[in-house]
Amino acid sequence: MSCEVVALYFARSAELAGVRSEIISVPQQITSLQLWEEIVKRHPRLAAIEDQVIFAVCQQYVLLGDQLLVLQSGDEVAVIPPISGG
Q1: In Å, what is the CA distance from 46 to each residue of 14, 65, 74?
Q2: How many beta carbons lie within 10 A of that of residue 17, not counting itself?
Q3: In what order do the strands lie in the sheet with 2-9?
Q4: Is the pLDDT of residue 82 over 80?
């Protein structure tokens, strides 16, 4: 079963994606790495920051990997690139 989530892009990820936010349809149960792969299919230039990016799903940090996410329609998925000077 799939759901529609709000993908939010910040800083470098927004530059590479060319958008600040969008609604995407993804499986309700998906690993964080699979979610990243779905996003990169839409915005291939994001692959350049894969080894540095983390997600915040409903404001909870999630590293890319095999962690299973259970998403609901309307959930926010923030793509957070490395923050320089931080």
Answers
A1: 9, 16, 23
A2: 20
A3: 21-27, 2-9, 76-80, 54-57, 60-62
A4: no
